[in-house]
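Closing statement on the adenosine-2'-5'-diphosphate sub-project.
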Amino acid sequence: MTELTNVTEAKAIKVPTLPDAQTVTSVTHWTDRLFSFRVTRPASLRFRSGEFVMIGLMGDPHPETGKVKPLLRAYSIASPSWDEELEFYSIKVQDGPLTSKLQHIRPGDEIILRPKPVGTLVHDALLPGKRLWFFATGTGFAPFASLLREPQTYEDYDEIVITHTCREAGELTYGAELIESLKADELLNEVIGDGFWKKIKYYPTTTREESAKKGRITDLMRSGEAFADLEVPALSPDTDRAMICGNLAFNLELKEMLEGYGLVEGANSNPQHYVVEKAFLD
Ligand code: A2P
């Protein structure tokens, strides 16, 4: 006798592609806390280097209704405005609602990207100046990864100082490699001018591990050590412009210091001497 079984044909459930979905093209894990990834760029997306967009994944289904909602966070675009793909630099937080999942993406996966770029870390928010300072902690390096590859940065300023403070030396690698790669970037050297990268003064520091320079950038500026190392005078509203992107305590402390040097905070609608944005933390 033939046994009758109730066979249900297994059908692959096709998850509908979201209208704002983009495809992951590459992922690089820098440390157990940091990774970067690149995704396709919507053809219609225009942005200014330094801006951010909302990106994310679908959240878990609601325990009762089963409904799923997008889980989105603000991420600075780390790639420049001319790049055909979009790059992001992210922290991995093991119990973070988004990054606990996002850290597992692989090439070919989709993420949600709302194509509405905004932000204050843009050239338009600053008055003309001689020296541009980028102050970052941790993943706050991301908007500067964009601006360091933006020709306007070098057209508008004689000198670019980038400071990056992280807990450990390994957390500096993404930024250090990016800056190093500018030297060999044939396209940028051709477009901006051969040796454009000589305008950059890079000042990486660590706070919880030995490295070439130990200490918080704020303390190193207060003591004058940072200016001596960089061979530049302390900031002045006559010559210096600044962009800040880090954790909240850092942003507030540095903002107060810049005000102390006489710099005034600017915005898109009112360009001044410096601008601030909070780095994404989840
Ligand atoms: P520290 O190790 O002394 O706290 P986080 O990973 O917590 O966002 O920190 C990134 C880096 O920013 C760390 O090196 C941290 O130093 C530094 N940092 C945190 N708060 C401040 C602040 N108020 N001023 C300067 N650096 C700070």
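Residues 179 and 267 are 27 Å apart (CA to CA). With this model delivered, the sub-project is considered complete and its resources will be redirected to Aim 3.
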